[in-house]
Amino acid sequence: MWPVDGGEYIYLNKTYGLLPSFLTGWISLVIGFSLAAAMSAITAVNYLNKLLPDQFSLGDWSAQLFAAGIILFFGMIHIVGVQKGGFVQNILTILKLLIIFLFITIGFYFINWQQSNRLIMSYDFPEHKSMLEYGAALIIIMYAYSGWNGTTYIAGEIKDPEKNLPKALLFATVLITLIYITINVVFLMSSSGQEIINDGKYTIGNLAAKKLFGENISPFFNLSIVLILLSSVSVQLMIGPRVCYAMAKDKVIFRSLKRISKKYQTPYVAIIIQTLIAILYVFIGFKVILKMLIYMGFALSIFPFLAVLGMMYWRYKNPECIRPFKVPFFPVVPIIYLALSSCIMAATLITKTTPSLFALGIIAVGMGIFFLWKRFLREC
Questions:
Q1: Is the pLDDT of residue 380 over 60?
Q2: Secondary structure of the chain: what % helix, strand, coil (to 5)?
Q3: Lower Cβ count inside 10 Å, N or C end of the chain?
Q4: What is the CA angle 40-83-244, rounded to 5?
Q5: Rounded Cα–Cα distance for residues 271 and 283 (Å)
Q6: Is 2 a member of any domain?
């Protein structure tokens, strides 16, 4: 219905007004895309470190500088132009898919299927976990899948979006689901659960490659995983600034963020800001980023919930609107989504009360900034 840049920001703006849309943009700017780009860059450097001899391995500061350099490189690529940035992203995506399919195919060949009980084994934890805690754990898994809607942030730059956008969303969601399931089978079947818990915490791909393919071949897959992570950094810096751009057009953030490069036709100021925030997270450190992800998972679940609820509202309130795509089995599909999301958020609020309240606090800070902006800085 609304094929313009901005994704959820646009949908919430048209449905609920500026405040909810500002808040989703606020969370996306300070957490969502920047945090993901920083985490991918740091993890890429961790994998590179596995390839280097001990005497050449990167220390904490040099690793952080290298990760910051990766983010800066892709920020510059996406400033240079949509076509050039899109070309780089397409190449990285093709390489990423080829690597993943190769890893899964060869992994399935080398797996010892006689040990398939690994897929259903349980391991002792220091304390008993309730169903609520398992439900809360789904917040992190939902974050892993959160990129499924990435194309909506650049909908205004997609050719024939009414036709191609639904195809991209559906195909990508099905493909990613299959990839995640099969690659996790490879990971779980490569080593015992205890080894994965102890040695695969940050570089599970490295552990799986060593166990399945041997020390000589595993470096190739480590390098391949680096390419996969570079693709992730690139896409976050491609789609994230489009949210800032949409906010700037509505005058809910500094208008300079809507500036378009005359030469390259890209929102270069928004890209620079997103790049700098991601670099800041790199120097904060991986462990802090991981904690922030757990803390902010709750906040990142609220706005997709509101977007789907808004879609249902528009379907009933404005049935005459032109809809190039209609949700099948409406309203069953969105109701299932809303019900499951509610359960996950409730479980998180009950079992991880402090992180959830912290996330709500960040949203509250965003509300304060919004009202201050309207009162004093609207014309900036």
A1: no
A2: 80, 0, 20
A3: C
A4: 60
A5: 19
A6: no
Q: How far apart are CA 167 and CA 146, in angstroms?
A: 17
**By the 8 A CB rule, do 299 and 31 touch?**
yes
- Domain with 256 in it: 8-119+130-377
Please count the structural domains in the chain.
1
User: Is it true that the peptide bond before 331 is cis, omega within 30 degrees of 0?
Assistant: yes
d(CA 290, CA 292): 5
Residues 254, 270: contact at Cβ < 8 Å?
no
**Cβ distance 275 to 282 under 8 Å?**
no
CATH code, domain with 78: 1.20.1740.10
pLDDT band at 256 (very low <50, low <70, confident <90, very high): confident
**Is residue 181 one of the residues assigned to a domain?**
yes
Q: Is the pLDDT of residue 26 over 90?
A: no
Identify the CA nearest to 154 among candidates 9, 255, 327.
9
Question: Can you list the pairs that 150-154 forms with residues at least 24 positions away whose Cβ atoms lie under 8 Å?
Answer: 150/7, 150/235, 150/239, 152/7, 152/8, 153/5, 153/6, 153/7, 153/239, 153/240, 153/242, 153/243, 154/5, 154/238, 154/239, 154/242
Query: Which pair of tokens denotes residue 317?
Result: 């309130």
Say if 21 falls within a structural domain: yes
% of the chain surpassing 90 pLDDT:
16
1 domain residue, yes or no: no
145 contacts 250 by C-beta, under 8 angstroms: no
